[in-house]
Design goal:
This protein has 87 residues and is mainly α. It has a domain of 59 residues. 59% of the residues lie in helices and 0% in strands. It contains four helices and no strands. The longest helix has 20 residues. The chain is globular.
Length: 87
């Protein structure tokens, strides 16, 4: 897929348009668990094409993004004196 960063952002935001972002984020782990239930490790590691990510790689990326987002949020100057207890 060849798209600009702005097009990518719009495509991703389109998946949650009109929804509460925090509720979507909170519901995501259970949704992901259901999607991968019963899949073997080999199935999760298999890439659908050489230039595509495997399920394992996608899940690792989501985990990394979650960590980065939480850390960035904890440094938000608007939250000074109110650290995120979840870190």
């Amino acid at each position: 897929m060849n798209e600009t960063p702005q097009q990518y952002t719009q495509r991703i935001l389109g998946h949650v348009q009109g929804l509460d972002a925090l509720r979507v984020q909170a519901a995501t782990p259970k949704k992901l668990q259901k999607l991968i239930a019963g899949k073997s490790p080999a199935q999760l590691r298999k890439k659908p094409a050489p230039d595509k990510w495997s399920v394992t790689e996608i899940l690792a990326h989501l985990g990394d993004a979650e960590i980065v987002t939480r850390v960035a949020h904890s440094f938000d100057p608007r939250r000074a004196g109110n650290p995120d207890p979840g870190l």
